[in-house]
Design a protein that fits this description.
This protein has about 425 residues and is mainly beta. It has one domain: Porin, CATH 2.40.160.60. Helices cover about 5% and strands about 45% of the residues. It contains 3 helices and 17 strands. Strands 1-3-4-6-7-8-9-11-12-13-14-15-16-17 form a 14-stranded antiparallel beta barrel.
Length: about 425
């Protein structure tokens, strides 16, 4: 919807990261059947027991370019409930994203570890009150009094137990604790459509807590072929009470469940291919999936209720492909590609201008090299090409436009064994 969630740190597969950890990101996240580093806990926790004693520190530099274009309305120069014709670019285009992981062997066949990382989302910060023409001229409380923007920050903390069942099978489980905060500005014109008008916008940062669990399995079918699978439950979160007039179900904003399945194939002693399929179930979260292509009718309550407006997002189905080349014992190169469906239907496009989550492709590459016997440096680069989704403003019936996004990311990490 026009009123959906965004994040301070990520926006790749919807608002989900395309991978966790530098090595994973360098092959577009195709690692459910690979073993890389301690960030594997957030993809397939079964891999952790293969890492032995290890810790990782990483930092990513994400550069998202996002915004929207509102075209002239064919019927009038400036009709009510339209957006002033222009191209709007969101500011704040550089984000620093740290991560940390630690794994410790309890014995020869089991390990315990901890992982801390950002999960995903999107940030938009526009330089004007883009919904000013939605205001009711007879109601001063609906006049847009601040610049428009949203900012959600999400963090996962996982505690992983991983065990080697036998020579072929590995199992892992990661109970997850999640924290998310949100800040919304410039949505005063929509307060009169809410069940809680004072809980729609400009209430500062609000915080939500919750948790869930991720489980993973790996099986070494042959010396060359490995299968992997993982499932993460819905993350049940406390409500955003300060924005219960904005999101469906009075501020409920759970984190969707996901599942991953894939394989890796060692074509030669030095070359490994990997293929993953991931599904992110955005359709299970009403604040994201409820329809938003609705005309705003005076006196109608459309926000903050059980079936209040959402984003109109659909489930995301992602194919990931990766290649790893062990060039020398001390130097490994990686590359990857992923592709997914558009989760924002064109009927919802202009109403998602605060959340232009329209990325559908990722091109990635990277390398790892040993600086010493126990210290490893890894680097990953990601490029997500510009993608646009066209749409029509349902409140005018004739104003068209599109939302768009493009991304770059560079990430570095240090891993050490002990």
């Amino acid at each position: 919807m026009i009123l959906t969630c965004s994040s301070h740190i990520y926006a790749t597969n919807g608002y989900w990261s395309h991978g966790y950890g530098t090595k994973s990101k360098s092959i577009a996240g195709a690692c459910v059947a690979m073993t890389f580093d301690t960030m594997c806990a957030l993809t397939n926790p079964a891999s952790m027991v293969e890492l032995k004693n290890r810790k990782d520190y990483g930092l990513a530099f994400l550069i998202p370019k996002r915004g929207f274009t509102a075209n002239d309305d064919a019927s009038s120069t400036f009709p009510p409930a339209s957006i002033p014709p222009d191209t709007y670019d969101s500011s704040h285009n550089l984000f620093l994203i740290p991560h940390f992981g630690y794994n410790y062997m309890l014995d020869d066949i089991s390990s315990i570890g901890v992982t801390v990382a950002g999960n995903g989302g999107m940030n938009t910060e526009y330089d004007s009150a883009i919904f000013s023409n939605f205001s009711n001229p007879n109601d001063p409380s609906t006049q847009a009094s601040s610049k428009t923007g949203m900012d959600l920050k999400q963090m996962f903390i996982g505690l992983t137990y991983s065990r080697k069942i036998n020579e072929q099978h590995l199992f892992g489980i990661t109970p997850l604790f999640a924290v998310q905060t949100i800040k919304v500005q410039g949505l005063q014109p929509f307060t009169s459509y809410s069940a809680h008008p004072d809980k729609v916008t400009d209430n500062g940062h609000d915080m939500s807590y919750g948790g869930g669990v991720r489980v993973g399995w790996k099986v070494k079918v042959t010396e060359q072929f490995t299968l992997g699978a993982a499932y993460q439950s819905k993350m049940w979160m406390s409500k955003f009470d300060d924005y219960k007039g904005l999101f469906a179900e009075e501020g409920d904003f759970d984190i969707p469940s996901t599942y991953d399945i894939g394989f890796s194939f060692k074509a030669t002693p030095k070359v490994t291919f990997a293929v993953d399929y991931q599904r992110i179930n955005y359709g299970d979260i009403k604040a994201l999936s409820n329809d938003s292509a609705i005309v705003f009718t005076p006196g109608e309550i459309l926000l903050g209720t059980e079936d209040g407006l959402g984003s109109g997002w659909t489930d995301m189905k992602i194919w990931k492909f990766g290649l790893q080349w062990e060039y020398t014992p001390d130097l490994t190169f990686r590359m990857g590609y992923s592709r997914t469906n558009d989760i924002v239907p064109n009927t919802q496009a202009l109403l998602n201008l605060l959340t232009p989550a329209v990325i559908t492709e990722h091109y990635t590459c990277g390398f790892s090299t040993f600086l010493s016997e126990n210290i490893e440096l890894s680097m990953a680069f990601m490029y997500a090409p510009n993608n646009k989704v066209q749409g029509t403003n349902p409140n005018t019936g004739s104003q068209t436009g599109y939302i768009e996004m493009e991304q770059y990311e560079v990430e570095f990490s240090l891993g050490s064994s002990f």
